Amino acid sequence: MVYPYSQDLRERALDLIINGMSISHVSRLLNISRPTLHQWRDIYLTTGSTVPKANVPPPQISKIKDSEKFEKFVEDNHTQTHASNGCKMGKL
Predict the structure, then answer these.
(1) Which of these, 11, 16, 19, lies nearest to 44 by C-alpha position?
(2) In angstroms, how far is CA 42 from the centroid of its own chain?
(3) Is the pLDDT of residue 3 over 80?
(4) Average pLDDT of 19-23?
(5) Fewest Cβ atoms nearer than 10 Å: which of 26, 41, 83, 84?
(6) pTM of the complete model
(7) Cβ partners under 8 Å of residue 3, min gap 6
(8) 26 near 5, Cβ under 8 Å?
(9) What is the DSSP string of 52-89?
(10) Does the structure show a pLDDT above 60 at 48?
(11) What is the 3-state secondary structure (H, E, C) of 37-58?
């Protein structure tokens, strides 16, 4: 999983950029890519914030279209398991 840079590092990098240090120099100094620094600067200039965006996964669309039919299927097959169907998944 990818983790965002710390808020402290973002603030230090933007402080250096705002106080006149070039993005290339800040990139080398803090080992952060130039495109990332450009993004941070642009977001800071438009929103005034350095807080990273929340990492929210996209919603999962249900494949079940008829809930009554699904409930009947579960009721009719509640005794069935992978093991009783010959599935070898649990047996290593």
Answers:
(1) 11
(2) 21
(3) no
(4) 95
(5) 84
(6) 0.56
(7) none
(8) no
(9) PPP--PPPPPPS---HHHHHHHHHHTTT--TGGGT--T
(10) yes
(11) HHHHHHHHHHHCCCCCCCCCCC
